[in-house]
Amino acid sequence: MDRLLTVQEAAKLLGTWETSKERFPRRLIEERRIAFVKVGRHVRIKESVLAAFVESNTVQPITRPRRLRTAA
Questions:
Q1: Domain Helix-turn-helix spans what residues (predicted)?
Q2: Does 66 or 14 have the greater pLDDT score?
Q3: Structural domain includes residue 68
Q4: pTM of the prediction?
Q5: N or C: which end of the chain has fewer CB within 10 A?
Q6: How far apart are CA 1 and CA 55, in angstroms?
C-alpha cells in the first residue's frame, strides 16, 4: 500500500514548498489533474500518484544526429 502524503508533504516532494507552499498541489487537486483521497475532511495524495504525475509531465530532450562540420 502506498504512503498517503499530506498536501504539505506533497509540496515538499514536488519541490514547490519554498516558492508556493501548498498552492500548487492544491491547484492540481482542484483541477482534478491528480487523484487524491479524502480522509474525513482531510486530503491525502498517494506517493505513487505524484510519481506518475511527474513521469507523465516529463519532457524528453530531442536527440538529433550529430552533423560533422566541414572546414570552409
A1: 4-57
A2: 14
A3: no
A4: 0.78
A5: C
A6: 20
CA dist 57 to 6, 7, 54, 60, Å?
Answer: 21, 19, 5, 9
Q: Domain residues for 11?
A: 4-56
C-alpha cell of 18? 519554498
Q: Indicate the number of domains in the chain.
A: 1
> Which of 4, 43, 49 has the alpha carbon at shortest distance from 26?
43
Residue 12 falls within a domain, yes or no? yes
Q: Is 4 left (phi over 0), alpha (psi -120 to 50) or beta?
A: beta
Give the Cα separation of 1 and 18 in Å (integer). 29
Tens of pLDDT, residue by residue over 23-63, are 999 999 999 999 999 999 999 999 999 999 999 999 999 88
Is residue 64 one of the residues assigned to a domain?
no
Give dist(CA 46, CA 37) in Å, integer.
8
